[in-house]
């Protein structure tokens, strides 16, 4: 008889559930973020759809599902964190009659001073190492773009330190709740054109560089899309200049356009990028907690 597990990546804004039967993903369901009202009800409603097809073995979740105020407080493993340390401390609960395991996040005071936390990215990192064992040897700089981008140092498979840049959140605030991109009027220039200009100024003092997004619309007839690209490049380029040493080898874990933009920015530091699919990495990381390959 087939064994069916449910693996899930439940972030701040989005839920991704995967039905895994005999080690193969057979279906996917999406949903709202982990900090929504009644997270247990949200999860139960989706599990019910699959329970109609037959019994489910268990559920394993990572990400903001384990945050305070979400499904259950799953706590943190302190950095430096080994895979076995991380897997040793899950929190368990029950939803829709099924055992649910929520994996811990990782926390620490970087440099012994600066507090930082992650939830979900550690699953992708350990999953990437499972997919590419060579990442478990030597030192690697791993970058996970997103709302809160993580720059992570991994040495011999141990997560030894990281720094968070809330770049995605800042971009959303600047483009959605400021005057910097101007009114919804016509103008010239694509997002890509603005991004190229932003890379030219990346690394300058940020507050001084930001205002070109608005001034270029007023004086140079730039479009709103151009301004969006410009702001994106300032923020992402600023990360790269701050974090990537000249000639560094960087592992990018993620999907879609956002990872494409980081690849375009990395040459600012002459960094070389390797790319790993974010979904494949998170599924491999979640599978570590079940012993079942997905």
From TrEMBL:
Transmembrane segments: none annotated. Gene3D superfamilies: 2-keto-3-deoxy-galactonokinase, C-terminal domain, 2-keto-3-deoxy-galactonokinase, substrate binding domain. Coiled coil: none annotated. This is 2-dehydro-3-deoxygalactonokinase. It comes from Novosphingobium decolorationis.
